[in-house]
Amino acid sequence: MAWLAWVLFGMQVLCSCTAAPPAPGAGAALLCPRCDDAAVEAAADLALRHINADREEGYVLSLYRIVSAREQPQEITGSVFYLILDVVDTECHVLSKKLWKNCNLRSAHSTVYGQCKAIIYINQARNITHLNTYECTLQPVPGKYIWSICPDCPIDGSPTKPEYLEAAARSLAKFNAESEQTHYFSVLNVTRASMQWVVGPAHFVEFLIQETSCSKDDKVADISMCEPLPPEVAKIGFCKGSVVKGHVEQFVTTSCEIYSQQEPATEEENQEANQTPGKSTQDQQASPSDANSFSPHLEKTVGWVKILPPSNEDITFHSLRESQNEHKDRKPVPPKAVESAQRCDGENTQVNKPDLTKSVTGPVFLPFPEEPSPSDSCPGEAKHPEGILHPLITRKPATV
C-alpha cells in the first residue's frame, strides 16, 4: 500500500503545472501560475496600463477577466508573463492618460469588448516593467443582445455621417461660447456616434477637439477657417455632446475635458504606474546606472488594436481569438537557437537556448504560446460579472 502512495505522489509531481524553474543555464520553461495569483493580477494590471499608454487612438481598455497566464523565469532577475486578457472599453479617451481603474465602464448598449494578448517583462530587482508586444481585437456587443434588454436604447451610427458632424459642430459652438479658454477650438474628429428618438431625433456624439490660433477676443464666424496651433503647444480636448430636435427648438448639450498634447498623468497615477508589483516605493529605489545599463536591451513596444465592425453574429470573447491570429506581420521574430523543454501541461514547447559564451544582458522573449494555460484557475473570475457581457463571456470556446 505504501508503494502505491509513493507512485501516486510521483505522478502528481510530474503532472504538476507550476514546476520549479530549471537550474541556471538550462533555459526557462513556461510555468502556469494561477490566474488569481497576486503576481499575475499585478502583471495584468501593468500590461493594461502600458497598452493604454502606448495607444494614441480609441478608448482606455479596462480589465474584465484574466483568461490565461504563463510565466517564463529569466536567468537574470525577473520574469516574462504571457497573458490573455478579456477587456472592455471605457468612457475615457486614451489621450486623457487616465488609468483604467479610474475610468467608468460604458453602458450596455455602447459596450465594446474583446481580448488582448500581451507579453510583459517584470524585474522587481531593477525596478523595470517593459511591455514587449500586445495584440487586441475588439467587437461591439451584437445588436440582438442590445435589443433584447433595451429595445429603446440609442443605436450606434457612423461617426462620419453629416448629421453627426453637424451635432459635433453645434455642441462645440456651445463649448466655445461658454468656456474660459483663450482660443477657439475646432473639431478634430468624431470618435463615437449614436441616435435615439426622444421628443424628436436625438444625436449623441463623442469627439476630439484641438486648439486653434484664433483668439476668443475676436469674433470668428467660421471656426473652420482658423489654423490649428502647433502640436507641441496646442491643447487637445475630448467632448461629449448631443443635439435633440424638438417640435419648435433644438436642445444642445456639451461636456469637454481639456488637456495639452504632452500632458502626463497625475502625480498619483504616475506613482501607481511605476509601482512594480510586490514592492513598496521605498523598496524600488534601484540604482540609475543599473537600470540604464539594462534598458538598451529592451526594444520598443510593438502592438496594435483592431476593432471589428458591428455584427449580429454570435461572437464571444473566445471567437475573437481567431481574428488575432490573422495578423502575423508585426509579431516578434522567433529566436533561432531553441531547445525543447517540458511545458507545464506536459507537452513540448520551444524555449530559447542561452548563449553560454556571453553574459546575459536582457530578458528572453518567446513566441506567444499557442495554447492557453491549462490551470484549473484559468480563466479567472470576471471583474464585472453582471450585465450584458455575462452571457457572452461565460460560453465555452469552440473546439478547433
UniProtKB/TrEMBL annotation:
Q: Where is the composition biased (Polar residues)?
A: 272-295
Sorted keywords for this record are: Disulfide bond, Glycoprotein, Repeat, Secreted, Signal
The answer to whether UniProt assigns keyword Repeat to this entry is yes
**Biased-composition ranges for Basic and acidic residues?**
322-332
The lineage's top-level taxon is Eukaryota
Primary location group: secreted
Q: Which InterPro entries match?
A: Cystatin_dom, Cystatin_Fetuin_B, Cystatin_sf, Kininogen_Fetuin_HRG, Prot_inh_fetuin_CS
What lineage does UniProt assign to this protein's organism?
Eukaryota, Metazoa, Chordata, Craniata, Vertebrata
Q: Where is the Cystatin fetuin-B-type domain?
A: 24-137, 148-257
User: Signal sequence: where?
Assistant: 1-19
* UniProt-annotated stretches for the region Disordered: 262-296, 322-400
Protein name (record) = Fetuin B
Query: Known Pfam families for this protein?
Result: Cystatin (PF00031)
Q: Which GO terms describe its biological process?
A: binding of sperm to zona pellucida; regulation of macromolecule metabolic process
